[in-house]
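Example is below:
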Amino acid sequence: MKYFKAQKCDFIKPVVTMGTFDGVHLGHVKLLEHVVKKANENNTKSIVITYFHHPLETIHKKTFPYLLTERENKEKLIKECGIDCVLYLDFNEQMAQMQPEDFLKKIIIDEIRVQDLIVGYDTHFGNSREGNYQFLKERSSIYNYSIELIEPVKMNNYIISSSLIRDYIREGDMQYAAKLLGRNYSIHGSVQLGHRIGRKIGFPTINLQPRDNNKLIPAIGVYVCEVLVDGKKYIGVTNIGYSPTMKTARIKEIETHILDFNDDLYHKNVEICFNKKLRDELLFKDKDELIKAIDIDIQQARDFFERRK
């Protein structure tokens, strides 16, 4: 496949949707489930055309720390909706200059041989994002495909969107972000060797290096979280910030104390799922005051999960 390098997927006249799908939030899920339903009715395959990273990175030639879902996690979530195949466009500078008509003809028609196209309210493609639902509708009879528009999902009169979810995460409102996502926001990464300061004061921590440098990190502060290690789930308290009471380097880190856990996790892959922000990161007058605050954080974390039982 010319525009989807090193990817294989057998299909004939599939049902197709396209977009970035960062976050795979409740609005995306509605669209994806409709695609799957249509494909099942037509006895064909359901296809998602997407990108990684965002096309704006190619256009502006810079990295943006914005991702809600890492590539592997995004594909997993999309397929959990029932989608048969996820195709990643090789979005290079040549594609960034491609006109909407060429994009439709060369990729959607000639490459994918689409039969039914289902798009969201904010679908745009081609140079200057001039391709949209109206563009596709006007050409459906020319290229002999059906086209459907899925209306957005709203919550509290706001359209659920990736950008709205990013705003809540940047503010540290993980509970409302979870409502829009349909699950808790999480970061996948590997455990790196830290300063081991937490161990010295009785609270050993893991230092997480996100799998993707583009991953959006929540607001600085202390969070109740769950930590997934080798398929098991543990309660944790995560500090995102600079640990000003114990450190002077001003390097932002993601440090998690896992409750009732003593195993060595260095270089292991873990997932941290954020449940609720407890407080801002604070500068305490001394180590003893910090220890008292951490004790309170841990008890609040236990209480949080106890109330959920």
About this structure: The chain has two domains: 15-156, 184-307.
